[in-house]
Design goal:
By secondary structure, the protein is mainly α. Helices cover 66% and strands 0% of the residues. It contains 9 helices and no strands. The chain is globular, with a radius of gyration of 17 Å. The protein starts with a helix and ends in a 5-residue tail after the last helix. The relative contact order is 0.11.
Length: 197
């Protein structure tokens, strides 16, 4: 029996009920988008093992659940929730450890240690290299304003420039599909800020 639909229903329900409306980026839509991208990247990366795919998808569902409880270091809170809840769905301690490792890998700066961790990292920041970048980014800008991480649009653009310059995709799939477009967005923001001679 595939336990994933049950877990998805449970976690998405929890996110819908628990996440603040002020989280204009880290919301249910983001989690579902990362799930879609993770499955697509995994397929292109040749991940066919049923257990690996299940653990990847479960990690995505739980990766931002910590935002219900805390904004900073939410990954650790996400691990706590996953560790508490997954045994009821039949997960072993070693499987839960893998899930937590994938969740922790998404913490910026990302430091994935294996292929599955690379996939979740790339899926989490897939938007950096695809259409809708500015729209999605604007949702994150609003969230950062609310959190006091930035105070105006110029600060946001400078933060984006630093982030895009330091960010890297890890899988061949994402490097091929997203790297060029991401570089174009970086150039565009630099132009906006008059940083290109």
């Amino acid at each position: 029996m595939d336990v994933f639909p049950q877990i998805q229903k449970h976690v998405i329900g929890k996110l819908q009920k628990g996440l603040s409306e002020k989280l204009t980026y880290h919301n249910v839509a983001h989690t579902l988008d990362v799930l879609k991208q993770a499955v697509a990247i995994a397929k292109k990366e040749g991940i066919t093992d049923a257990e690996d795919l299940l653990l990847l998808k479960v990690s995505v569902l739980y990766h931002d659940i910590g935002f219900i409880y805390a904004y900073h270091d939410h990954e650790e809170r996400s691990c706590v929730v996953a560790t508490e809840e997954l045994p009821a769905f039949g997960f072993t301690a070693s499987q839960i450890e893998k899930v937590c490792n994938m969740i922790r890998a998404t913490k910026v700066p990302q430091k994935p240690q294996d292929h599955l961790e690379q996939i979740i990292c790339d899926a989490d920041l897939d938007y950096l290299g695809r259409p809708g970048f500015f729209e999605t980014g604007n949702n994150l800008y609003k969230e950062f304003l609310e959190q006091g991480i930035v105070t105006n649009f110029k600060e946001w653009n400078m933060l984006q420039i630093r982030f895009l310059e330091s960010h890297q995709y890890f899988t061949k799939t994402s490097l091929k599909r997203r790297q060029k477009v991401k570089s174009n967005y970086l150039q565009s923001i630099k132009e906006t800020e008059g940083l290109l001679s």
